[in-house]
Design a protein that fits this description.
Cadherins are calcium-dependent cell adhesion proteins. One of its GO terms (biological process) is cell migration. Keywords: Calcium, Cell adhesion, Cell membrane, Cleavage on pair of basic residues, Glycoprotein, Membrane, Metal-binding, Repeat, Signal, Transmembrane, Transmembrane helix. It is found in: Cell membrane. Helix content is about 10%, strand content about 35%. A hairpin with a 5-residue loop joins strand 9 and strand 10. It is elongated. With about 725 residues, it is mostly beta strands. Among the domains are: about 60 residues, Sandwich (Immunoglobulin-like); about 100 residues, Cadherins (Immunoglobulin-like), CATH 2.60.40.60; about 110 residues, Cadherins (Immunoglobulin-like), CATH 2.60.40.60; about 100 residues, Sandwich (Immunoglobulin-like), CATH 2.60.40; about 110 residues, Immunoglobulin-like (Sandwich), CATH 2.60.40.60. The chain has three helices and 41 strands.
């Protein structure tokens, strides 16, 4: 720095202030030269603003105004490129064409991108050729070789370099790695590990049971490796089926229908495996499927007997004779050895043992009589067992239908009782009856009705067959009377017209009743015409009411008479107004030890149980008293009762009997202790009964009585 005022003398002094003054930048105060005292880094601070001023060295007075100036740091190439996001991972489908985009990388340079070429980057591949390439300026990585196969090599390691100075000599560089993985596409068909498979299976294998597995390998992975299996040719396409195991991608061969060694001993199948997901781009490489041959050998097994039919239906008439043959079942051993068969009936299905079977030829016979009306169907199970191996057993259901025969006579559907009005008209329908038959003819029921031969010329009633197979009973005349005849019995013969015809006789009861003018039945009782002529129901009710009234009057009269004879003054013996009971007997006192055992009056704590009441029944027999003569009217009832009471009191054989009760202990915890005079050490004269008044009104009254007794004695 230099001022125009400087004449060349040493009186001028230069002063520097601002960013970095005195630390980074220092000025020579005599010459004005500015020096940088430290290494500068443009990437840290690109420019500094400083202020300079010239002052008098002696007075420090400014010689001119301060001047501001800027120092800019010029960039040099001192920072290499850096890949901030590295290392990189990328994927690309296998078999991709040349130039397929893989990924893009980015490097940064801290140098000034405006000044020079310090930040001008150029990209290149150091490792990874000739498989991949990179655009020098955009850093886009692409495939460089066609048809890269994942099955041959799946992963590639690529090294990318970024160099500044436009890639020229002397430029700085940085590197990063890119791991490129080839993703799978369906470019490989499934392939069976072997062209021929052999399996063997027992003929009694269960349906749906797997008998073998085949495997078509696919070099692809995931969804591209999934295959479906199918049987496309062979003589067992309807006997076997093949399914895919979702976990292992195996083809599982299963039995679809029963096998029979005696019928066919081997099968040949052609199995195909095909990819489920196919990429159309690779169809030109061939079909994505493969085939293999499967040979299955059926081995012989000891099989149970086989019936000639899965079910049997037999029909028999219900009147079939015992031991008659109803039908026959047949079975055979399908094995080559052909064991003899024995037949039997599962008795759990024939609990009543109505049928038998011949163990040798399977003929079913009748053991007990049948009744279609009881059971129309019988379902039994026949068991066939090999004689050489009893574990080989087969069962077959046999349904036996019992056919109907005409063995039941028709009868009335219900017990009918007809009512005939006394004022009925000739030809009036009295009752319509119907019949039932337990049999079941093919063409339905048709009943024939008739009267007994001796009742054909019945003067009172006649019958008429209706179209609905019912019968109407009609009156021949009018003027029926209950007094003349109350009930009529009409026997009717019912026939079914079957083969052989069956018939029965039912009796219809016809009761003559009194009816209103419109034909409504009012009374059919026999008592109705026994009453005197002209006595109506209202009159009967009035008579009964009078009788009841007379009975009430008699009862009231007797009751008033009894109350009148009772005495008005109550005797002293019958006065129960006081709670004092008088006893005329006394004990013998403490000196009387002969009348009882004093040990029983002691504390009963040691005695278990409760002493029951001991009733003593007298041994003597009381002679019955002579029958009393009838009491004439007017005798006092009170005197009669007293006589009866006296007789009862003097009868020792009449209960209640004399009894013994023991009162020897009042229980533990009693503040009063025992009330018994036994074992008392003091006399009555030594006791004070005033404390009894504290126990309540009853004990207070007892204390007063004892106190009065003591005072009387002293007096």
């Amino acid at each position: 720095l230099h001022t125009d005022l400087d004449p060349g003398s040493s009186k001028i002094k230069y002063i520097l202030s601002g960013d970095g003054a005195g630390t980074i930048f220092v000025i020579n105060d005599k010459t004005g030269d500015i020096h940088a005292m430290k290494r500068l880094d443009r990437e840290e601070k690109a420019e500094y603003t400083l202020t300079a001023q010239a002052v008098d060295r002696d007075t420090n007075q400014p010689l001119e105004p301060p001047s501001e100036f800027i120092i800019k740091v010029q960039d040099i190439n001192d920072n290499p490129p850096e890949f901030v996001d590295g290392p990189y991972h990328a994927t690309v489908p296998e078999m991709s064409v040349v130039g397929t985009f893989v990924t893009k990388v980015t490097a940064t340079d801290a140098d000034d991108p405006v000044y020079g070429n310090s930040a001008k980057l150029v990209y290149s591949i150091l490792e990874g050729q000739p498989y991949f390439s990179i655009e020098p300026h955009t850093a886009i990585i692409k495939t460089a070789l066609p048809n890269m196969d994942r099955e041959a090599k799946e992963e590639y390691f690529v090294v990318i370099q970024a160099k500044d100075m436009g890639g020229h000599m002397g430029g700085l560089s940085g590197t990063t790695t890119v791991t490129i993985t080839l993703t799978d596409v369906n470019d490989n068909p499934p392939k069976f590990a072997q062209s021929l498979y052999h399996f063997s299976v027992m003929e009694d294998v269960a349906l749906g049971e797997p008998i073998g597995r085949v495997k078509a390998n696919d070099l692809d992975i995931g969804e591209n490796a999934k295959s479906s299996y199918d049987i496309i040719e062979g003589d067992g396409m309807d006997i076997f089926e093949i399914t895919t195991d979702a976990q292992t991608q195996d083809g599982i061969i299963r039995v679809r229908k029963p096998l029979d060694f005696e019928t066919k001993k081997s099968y040949t199948l052609k199995v195909e495996a095909a990819n489920i997901h196919i990429d159309p781009r690779f169809l030109s490489g061939g079909p994505f499927k493969d085939t293999a041959t499967v040979k299955i050998v059926v081995e012989d097994a000891d099989e149970p007997p086989v019936f000639s039919s899965p079910t049997y239906l037999l029909e028999v008439h219900e009147n079939a004779a015992l031991n008659s043959v109803l039908g026959q079942v047949t079975a055979h051993d399908p094995d080559v050895s052909s064991s003899p068969i024995r037949f039997s009936i599962d008795r759990h299905t024939d609990l009543e043992r109505q049928f038998n079977i011949n163990a040798e030829d399977g003929k079913i016979t009748l053991a007990t009589p049948l009744d279609r009306e009881t059971s129309t169907w019988h379902n039994i199970t026949i068991v066939a067992t090999e004689t050489r191996n009893h574990s080989q057993v087969s069962r077959v259901p046999v349904a036996i239908k019992v056919l109907d025969v005409n063995d039941n006579a028709p009868e009335f559907a219900s017990e009918h009782e007809a009512f005939l009005c006394e004022n009925g008209k000739p030809g009036q329908v009295i009752q319509i009856v119907s019949a039932v038959d337990k049999d079941d003819p093919k063409n339905g029921h048709y009943f024939l009705y008739s009267l007994l031969p001796e009742m054909v010329n019945n003067p009172n009633f006649t019958i008429k067959k209706n179209e609905d197979n019912t019968l109407s009973i009609l009156a021949k005349h009018s003027g029926f009377s209950r007094q003349k005849q109350e009930v009529y019995l009409l026997p009717i013969v019912i026939s079914d017209g079957g083969t052989p015809p069956m018939s029965s006789t039912g009796t219809l009861t016809i009761r003559v009743c009194g009816c209103s003018s419109d034909g409504t039945v009012q009374s059919c009782n026999v008592e109705a015409y026994v009453l005197p002529i002209g006595l109506s129901m209202g009159a009967l009710i009035a008579i009964l009411a009078c009788i009841i009234l007379l009975l009430v009057i008699v009862v009231l009269f007797v009751t008033l008479r009894r109350h009148k004879n009772e005495p008005l003054i109550i005797k002293d013996d019958e006065d129960v107004r006081e709670n004092i009971i008088r006893y005329d007997d006394e004990g013998g006192g403490e000196e009387d030890t002969e009348a009882f055992d004093i040990a029983t009056l002691q504390n009963p704590d040691g005695i278990n149980g409760f002493l029951p009441r001991k009733d003593i029944k007298p041994d003597l027999q009381f002679m019955p008293r002579q029958g009393l003569a009838p009491v004439p009217n007017g005798v006092d009832v009170d005197e009669f009762i007293n006589v009866r009471l006296h007789e009862a009191d003097n009868d020792p054989t009449a209960p209640p009997y004399d009894s013994i009760q023991i009162y020897g202990y009042e229980g533990k915890g009693s503040a009063a202790g025992s009330l018994s005079s036994l074992e008392s050490s003091t006399s009555d004269s030594d006791q004070n009964f005033d404390y009894l008044s504290e126990w309540g009104p009853r004990f207070k009254r007892l204390g007063e009585l004892y106190s009065v007794g003591e005072s009387d004695k002293e007096t």
